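Two proteins were folded this term; both appear here.
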Amino acid sequence: MEFTHAQANQISASTKDEILPVFRLGQRVRILKPIRNDGSNPFEAPDAILVQPGAEGYVKHIGDWLQVIRIYEVHFIEEGHTYGCREAELEAIEDLDGYDEVEEELKWLREHRANKSKEKENLSAQSQKEGEPS
């Protein structure tokens, strides 16, 4: 992550991040501050803005720098690039449609298991009836 001197004063490199990550892998996030080229991107001018505030992406990897600073590797969708970001530079974006894929999948699994259990009970009851003398 690249900073100007003003930005460096806002987020101290010596600040220890929370013990547990604030964001999770695959989570949709929005960048709050511009990402500038610190010279590590040879295809852009030094100090050029690589990603504007408000850009959205997904957390691709979570790592640590100096064992105290958490870096989130975020793939920015529109820009098509991945950059490292600090927790203070990101905010979570809740799904706009409110659709919870995990809950939907769990619901389907529970229903499927219940149906399979009923089928098994019916087959067991049917085989017991067939085995009984009339």
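Next, the second protein.
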Amino acid sequence: MAKTKTKTKRPVIDDEDDLDVIDETPAAAPVAPAERAKRADAAMILDMDGIGAEVAAALVVNGLRAYLSVVNKGANLVAANRANTAFVPVKAEECFDGLDVRRDEARALVEGHGVLAFLLEADGARTAYYIPVSEYMEMAEDRGESGLRLDVTAHAKWLEKFAGHPGAKRTFARLLA
């Protein structure tokens, strides 16, 4: 059975007065721009720079789950596979001159096959490096009291494989499998 199409008729305006009614619609008032949200009490927020949140977001984008635990300096995270059956501890640090971490913080991650996530700010650009702690400790210079340091310019070629999203996927490959 075929369906019949019907057309609806448009209303016909016979009188000029009816046009005036249609044209007198009020204009919408301009919308004021939204104000930026302010935190009520920033004294209790330890990840003020968003270091941990930035690393956690990068891990999630790359197919992992990230659980953020903020500490007094930097941030500790736990990266997990999607099934939450395998975990890797992550220490996130922000650096400006080189990839620096305290010796005791790096050693604490060795047994758990941890990862050091460095957010390096240089020349107005920010680069993230995801380095297995065991490899970092082999390459880093021991600076005594000031901890361990990996010079970025001296190890630039070696660091390429740990940079950005490809570096995260490479470093966390066992969780992504």
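The CA atoms of residues 47 and 119 lie 14 Å apart. Residues 51-61 form the longest helix (11 residues). These notes refer to the second protein only.
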